[in-house]
């Protein structure tokens, strides 16, 4: 009985310390925090949850050129700034992210097709990895996964195309600033 009581006290103390750390703002939340136990717990939790989420998921990730090409278009628009690609650097902001968006042709290729599909569809909360299921159909997500699968085997030609597409995207976004400038220029009319 004394033993059980001791365990109970220890559990209550541990819970109390955890609540104290969280409620007094002492959980290190800055993106610049050096790697610590929070990352270790989070990485394990994420991996286990992806495995569980994708278990029993029936998905076929296509491998034909048309699917890969459709997937590439989505990728350039939705993923490239964070993840980059072989031969294409991620955007500057991605350097300050924690966790860092992983190389798309790297370790994450160890996931099976269903797991990659699940991650793209559902995202990973509190990491910056969006859930694309909110605005993409399953077939589109399968195409994106097809391109992700293809990235370790990009030909030099494909890398060049991708780099060109990436810089085109930049111009596209610069162009989007123009309507705002016009609006500003039109302002004097309101004062007439
Ligand atoms: C705003 C930045 C951002 C965008 C945009 C983004 N990702 Fe991610 N992605 C991340 C981050 C950060 C992680 C790492 C999450 C972690 O370590 O828990 C990640 C992880 C992943 C993973 C691996 C999951 C794991 O266990 O680490 C895959 C696969 C992935 N992203 C694919 C994509 C694809 C495909 C797209 C586009 C459709 C995309 N991401 C768009 C930030 C982003």
Secondary-structure-based class equals mainly alpha
Can you tell me the CATH class of the domain at 59-173? Mainly Alpha
The largest sheet, given as strand count, sense and whether it forms a barrel, is:
none
Distance between the termini: 86 Å
Strand content: under 5%
CATH level 3 topology of the domain at 59-173: Cytochrome Bc1 Complex, Chain D, domain 2
What overall form do the CA principal axes indicate? elongated
Give the integer mean of the pLDDT values: 89
The CATH superfamily of the domain at 59-173 is Cytochrome c-like domain
The strand count comes to: 0
The CATH architecture term of the domain at 59-173 is Orthogonal Bundle
Q: Could you list the spans in which at least 5 consecutive residues all have pLDDT below 50? A: 174-192
**Any idea what the radius of gyration is?**
23 Å
Bound ligands: heme C
Please describe what this structure looks like.
The chain has a domain of 115 residues: Cytochrome Bc1 Complex, Chain D, domain 2 (Orthogonal Bundle). The chain is mainly alpha-helical and 192 residues long. α2 packs across α5, α3 crosses α6 and α5 packs across α6. Bound molecules: heme C (HEC).
């Amino acid at each position: 009985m004394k033993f059980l009581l001791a365990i109970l006290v220890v559990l209550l103390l541990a819970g109390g310390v955890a609540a104290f750390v969280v409620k007094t703002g002492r959980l290190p939340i800055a993106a610049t925090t050096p790697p610590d136990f929070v990352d270790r717990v989070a990485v394990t939790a994420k991996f286990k949850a992806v495995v569980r989420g994708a278990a029993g998921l029936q998905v076929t990730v296509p491998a034909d050129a048309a699917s890969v090409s459709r997937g590439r278009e989505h990728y350039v628009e939705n993923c490239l700034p964070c993840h980059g690609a072989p031969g294409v650097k991620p955007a500057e902001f991605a350097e300050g992210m924690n966790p860092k968006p992983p190389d798309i042709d790297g370790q994450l290729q160890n996931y099976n097709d269903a797991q990659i599909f699940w991650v793209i569809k559902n995202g990973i909360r509190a990491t910056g990895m969006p859930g694309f299921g909110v605005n993409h159909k399953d077939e589109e997500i399968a195409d994106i996964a097809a391109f992700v699968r293809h990235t370790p085997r990009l030909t030099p030609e494909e890398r060049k195309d991708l780099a060109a597409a990436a810089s085109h995207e930049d111009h596209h976004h610069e162009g989007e600033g123009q309507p705002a400038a016009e609006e500003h220029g039109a302002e004097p009319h309101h004062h007439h």
